[in-house]
Write a structure and sequence with these properties.
CATH topology of one domain: Immunoglobulin-like
CATH class of one domain: Mainly Beta
Order of helices and strands: HHHEEEEEEEEEH
Distance between the termini: 101 Å
Shape: extended
Number of helices: 4
Strand order of the largest sheet: 2-9-8-4-6
Number of strands: 9
Strand content: 25-35%
Helix content: 10-25%
Largest sheet: 5 strands, mixed
CATH superfamily of one domain: Immunoglobulins
């Protein structure tokens, strides 16, 4: 048996190779994916249909609607004004939204932008701060809304909403609040005027 192993070793590695070279040689065939590969002819339709029938009962919900996640503590923010009304002409409009934290814990608040994108057709909208900010219990902060008109408007008015996201520090539940905004574009040009 020893003679056979020596003959095999002599054929694979030249005589002048050291033992470090023998250890560091790679195998002839390298397989990148060690998982078993399935071909199309190896999967039968009866296997698939039996599997679906077996799990059919487990997939039913039983008519109960799943409840959404519930925060550990009640989540609430107060803001003023309750709704905005903008009249956009040729000048830049800047408004301020005040936010307070009536809860007994620290709340993170982030402005998520506009709910409906129709108001972006005629003006550019900016909300500051763009990052989330921390509100201590009983304290307030401001979000500044800036509207820059783009010239002639293609729509006379728009109903949009400013989204606010609020969450506690170590709670996975996020509450969303919407501040309604009515925008009237004073520089609206009807389509009949565009045609002339």
């Amino acid at each position: 048996m020893e003679n056979f192993d020596n003959k095999v070793m002599d054929k694979q590695v030249p005589k002048e190779a050291s033992t470090a070279d023998i250890i560091s040689t790679l195998p002839i065939c390298i397989n990148n994916n060690p998982r078993h590969k399935f071909n199309a002819e190896k999967v039968s339709l009866t296997f698939l249909t039996n599997g679906l029938k077996r799990h059919k009962g487990k997939l039913r919900n039983g008519g109960k609607e799943s409840e959404g996640p519930v925060p550990l503590y009640p989540l609430q923010i107060d803001y003023f004004p309750d709704k905005f009304s903008f009249e956009v002409n040729d000048e830049v409009v800047i408004r301020k939204l005040r936010i307070w934290n009536p809860c007994s814990r620290f709340v993170y608040v982030k402005c998520c932008g506009l709910w409906d994108e129709s108001a972006r057709l005629c003006a550019s909208w900016y909300c500051y701060p763009k990052t989330r900010f921390l509100l201590a219990p009983g304290l307030g902060a401001s979000i500044i809304i800036k509207v820059v008109p783009r010239g002639d408007s293609v729509i006379p008015f728009a109903h949009v909403g400013l989204q606010l996201a609020a969450a506690y520090l170590r709670d996975n539940v996020v509450g969303y609040f919407v501040v309604p905004i009515f925008v009237k574009f004073m520089n609206y040009v009807p389509p009949s005027v565009f045609a002339e």
